Amino acid sequence: MSNIKRIIPGLLSLALAACAHQGNHISWQDFNQSGVQEAQAQQGLLVFYRSGEEKMGSAVNLSIDGQYLSSLLAGGHISTPVCPSAHQITAVPTGKDQAYLNKLKQHGSSLNIQAGQTVYIKIHSDGNNAQLQQIDPQTAQTELAQTRTQAHTLARLSPSISCAH
Fold first, then answer.
1. Of residues 68 and 164, which shows the higher confidence score?
2. Which of 8, 57, 124, 157 fits a 20 to 30 Å CA distance from 43?
3. Which residues form the signal peptide (predicted)?
């Protein structure tokens, strides 16, 4: 019995040491360099971007039909396919009050998207408010060349919005 009492602590120490790991050094990137995708024939495409000239500060939370798309930083862009139909687009600066998540579901601009259509929307934010501005494709392409693809958040759009069946 005394041998078992001596062996058990040793086995437990060995098991704990085996479970320990060297630590995964995770690096996180806010942006990557990929470009804007093309609209598919059966879907529309929304492209949102912010100028790098805006003050850095807070991100702007974007939602489509009340569902989270991204927290867009200055100098970033994000695109998402959408079903051809009317969509409610909302932009709210991050964390300006406790109810900003509710605001993502209540306020916004209505936009009717056609199949195969790409719509470019520039976000203007002063840190307290955010405005959406639809931009013509030629101007948007020029301005998008100065931005990077947003990569630090995951969209939570349902298949009914993105047509990803």
1. 68
2. 124
3. 1-20
Rounded distance between C-alpha atoms, residue 110 and residue 89, angstroms: 6
Burial-class residue 3 by CB neighbours within 10 Å (0-12, 13-18, 19+): exposed
Which residue range forms the structural domain that includes residue 90? 31-162
Residue 83 inside a domain? The answer is yes
Please report the pLDDT score of residue 29 as a whole number: 45
- The C-alpha atoms of residue 72 and residue 50 are separated, in whole angstroms, by 7
Asked if residue 82 is part of any domain, the answer here is: yes
* Torsion angles phi and psi, residue 122, rounded to 5: -95, 135
- Residue 36 in domain: yes
The number of folded domains in the chain is 1
pTM of the model: 0.73
